[in-house]
Amino acid sequence: MKRKPEPNKWIRCTAVGSRLLAGCLTMLLFIPPAAASDCNCLPRFPAESFSLQQAERTLLLDYIGKGDFDAAFRLLEQSAPAPDDFHRRLRNILSAYKTLEDNWRQENQQAAEKRNEKIRLLRNDPNQALTLRPEEALSLLVQNRQTGSAAALPPADPLAAALTEQLRRNILQWQEKGEYEKAWRRGLRVLLQADPDNPSLLPQKQELLSKIAIEKKLTAVLCPGQTDPYAAVQAETFYEALRRLDKKYVTPPPYPLLARRAFTCARHLGEVLACGRNDFLYSTEPNNLTLWNEHLKPIQETLDGIAESDWDCTRFLEQIRLLLDLNRSSLRLPDGFLVQVLTEAVFEELDPYTELIWPARSEEFDKQMSGEFVGVGIRISRQDDRLNIVEIVPGSPAEESGILQTGDSILAIDGKPTENLSLDCAVRLISGPQGTPVVLTILRDEKEITVTVPRRKIILPSLHGNSSPLEQPIQSNGDLSAYQIDPDPRIAYIRISSFRKDTPQTLRGILDQFQQKCLLGLILDLRSNSGGLLDAAAAAADLFLEKGTIVKICTRQGVEQEITASPDALPAAIPIIILVDGGTASGAEILAGALTAPQSPRAILVGTRTYGKGTIQEVETISQDGSRLKYTRGYFKLSYDRLVPNRYELLKQNRTDWGLLPQAVIEAEETQLAKAQQARQQLEKFFAENKKSKSAEHRQDILPLLESLLRSDPPLAAGLTILKAQILAAGISLEMPADPNTPIPQPTPQ
Q1: Considering the entire predicted model, what is its pTM?
Q2: Residue range 85-92: mean pLDDT, rounded
Q3: Domain count of the chain?
């Protein structure tokens, strides 16, 4: 029986599957012409036009489904001597992709040649090394290795060895100064890229990241009117969270590991404080720091003397209380600060997704989950010590101002300078009561501009076309041009950025409208989708499945829930491509996994391996001050009774085979991703300027922008190529109607 939605059950990825059988591609790719669509009016070409033998055709489509377009092209060239309609049409589809591929290969080669030239200069002239920082020079070598233009970095490589040694010295110097973020970003992270299999670097990574977390809390910038950012953090709330986890966490908590992690965190705190930086919120006397370090030793001895079988929640809480008592008698830091430091360290030992949401973060957490907030409709970040606008929500007050642009630097908010303002504080100042104005002073092209923008309720869409939609087209007369990815308006492109309550309903509305135009194929873009509501992700999968299991929820007690599909799905003959990458996680993996089950594949995955977050979380309020606990309560299994390989667990084993592996593995270079982002921004701008236009000319103007996007987005271009081959294999003509914007008339019911 289909499970009713439960509002407290949800999935989320905080960072950013199983291997599918390639043999199942044939089942999906070869669609009999008679079953290709419920629209009998679709133009077709005669079945006799297929001169390929069935075995050849199957192999050809299998190559295409795997993204091996070169093999498909070769087979096509070797086939029937007299090309028929199918040959010609498929050749045109493959040729269009090969043209793009040749351009990408040429661009990559040019980039590799530039890197090689720099590397040659470095090898031949040591003085050239002075023009680059060691991490930049080593990154050049790593990039060449990754692109295949150079062999792996051998230990005997004098240049690599010299750069590595210099970076190691730099890391030590930065650590001594307490500059842990710099030691990680400019040092250890680069060493890990150059030598990812070096086991000696992993403990150093964990220690450095632990100290960075402590450093950030010690250097937190106070918001206006704020005296202590940790005043609301209470030890009893932490204790209650641990008692809940003891009963409800997906597995019994490993208390010996948690205790050691808490102790290690306490030791790291002492080492960070010893740096004595002037920008720390709190300081301590050297004698107090000595007392702290000396009294940690007997605590360590006590921990080592406790047998693992003797650990339970009560004993663990005793150890936490010892550390808090020691702080009161030595360091004398605020209790709230130490509690938050220990909380994050302990919960991180459990997994990356379990966390305590203190009252100060409660509002921001709700914004993330609901996609609703009161503000002006901008997304900001700190770049180069400046507060910059990185995104403007279409249809928001920020866009309607006609002044604010992405790339603008915010110098002041209501007259308050942003130079030393934290990101959280800036968000709080820009947000405010609905209907009230905020005055932003921005810098653009070295000119200061002041703009007053009203605050109002903003709803971030979870569904997008080629840009963030200006309106959700769930009405019968909605404009579908934002969801067009090809000159043929019967091929749809829908990007799902997250799963929220309204996602399934809105998705169904868009699909229904395309069905009125005789939908030929669909591309679902789940890249960078970190999840969201479990029920919403399952309901979205249900739109495409007629029957069977969508997902199973497994807890300590075994299979607790099973969500099954119901009838009334999108016709099974309509082919679907799903784009995924390393940011596709959680609920997005549920949707991708449900539609690519080996026993009844409904879609083909294109892109790179997904994130591998096979767990679900639940949120509970645990104290009167509104503090909430988000914890991992279970794992999920896909329809074929397979757990999604968990990234967090596999990393402990030094493995990388997590998540879902696409049938067609298509990668994109960083430079290509940057160009694709620019192309999407151009589309955003186009829709913003033409939001009231519904004309055919308006829709035709989109096509050059779409071509630019496809040229910079290899996974998208590959997915569209595979999709067109599937449509062609069904005997459906891709010839455009005279007026591509006119819906194809539906057949008269008999």
Answers
A1: 0.86
A2: 84
A3: 3
Domain boundary among 459, 481, 515: 459
Helix (H) and strand (E) counts in the chain: 24, 21
CA separation for the pair 332, 338 (Å, rounded): 10
Q: In this prediction, what percent of the chain has a pLDDT beyond 70?
A: 84
User: Could you tell me if 670 and 574 lie in one domain?
Assistant: yes
Burial class of residue 344 (count of CB atoms within 10 Å of its CB; 0-12, 13-18, 19+): middle
Average confidence score pLDDT of the chain: 83
Whole-angstrom CA distances from 704 to 683, 698, 709 are: 10, 12, 9
Can you give the residue range of the structural domain that contains 522? 9-25+461-729
What value, to the nearest 5°, has the Cα angle with vertex 258 and ends 253 and 259?
130
Share of the chain above pLDDT 90, in %: 49
CATH of the domain at 444: 2.30.42.10
Q: How far, rounded to the nearest angstrom, does the alpha carbon of residue 740 sit from its chain's CA centroid?
A: 35
Q: What is the DSSP letter of 188?
A: I
Distance CA 99, CA 668 (A): 16
Does 517 share its domain with 453?
no
CA angle 615, 618, 619 (to 5 degrees): 145
Range in 42-46, 69-73, 148-152, 424-428 with the lowest mean pLDDT: 148-152
Average pLDDT over residues 623-628: 94
Report the C-alpha gap between 18 and 596 in whole angstroms.
10
Tell me which of 652 and 379 has the higher pLDDT: 379
Quote the pLDDT of residue 44. Answer: 64
Residue 532 falls inside a structural domain:
yes
Q: Count of residues for the chain? A: 750
